[in-house]
Amino acid sequence: MRKLIALVGMVLLLVAGIAAADQYVRGYTRSDGTYVQPHYRSSPDSSYNNNWSVKPNTNPYTGERGTREPTLYDKPPSNSYDWYRQRR
């Protein structure tokens, strides 16, 4: 029973972490009068490749595949697992 509770707890933490990685952007009007529809975006970090518009990533909300080429020497995202390991 303890293993089951631990497993459920781990799954909940994982789901919460994934959900926190996305941000909702409310619709707004640009200064030139163009209206931008509400949408989701990935949380900003220091990595170019950690972005839905970069290949081979796929936007989980629209299903669109990334079209920009990834960079070879990209910095790891600021919220990466390595950051967590350094703090332990």
Structure notes:
The chain is α+β, with helices and mostly antiparallel strands. It has one domain. It is built from two helices and four strands, in the order αββββα. The protein has helices spanning 2-20, 81-87, and strands at residues 22-25, 28-29, 35-36, 39-42. A two-stranded antiparallel ribbon has the order 1-4. Strands 2-3 form a two-stranded antiparallel sheet. Strand 2 and strand 3 (35-36) form a beta hairpin. The chain is extended and about 60 Å long. The two termini are 28 Å apart.
List the helices and strands and how they pair.
Layout: H1 2-20, E1 22-25, E2 28-29, E3 35-36, E4 39-42, H2 81-87
Antiparallel strand pairs: 1-4, 2-3
Can you tell me the number of structural domains? 1
Strand content: 5-15%
Arithmetic mean of pLDDT? 78
Spatial gap, N to C terminus: 28 Å
Describe the main β-sheet briefly: 2 strands, antiparallel
Instruction: Indicate the structural class.
Output: alpha+beta
Fraction of residues in H or I helices: 25-40%
Total number of beta strands: 4
What Rg is obtained from the alpha carbons, in whole angstroms?
17 Å
Q: Give the SSE string.
A: HEEEEH
- How would you write the strand order of the largest sheet? 1-4
- What sort of overall outline do the alpha carbons produce when their principal axes are compared? extended
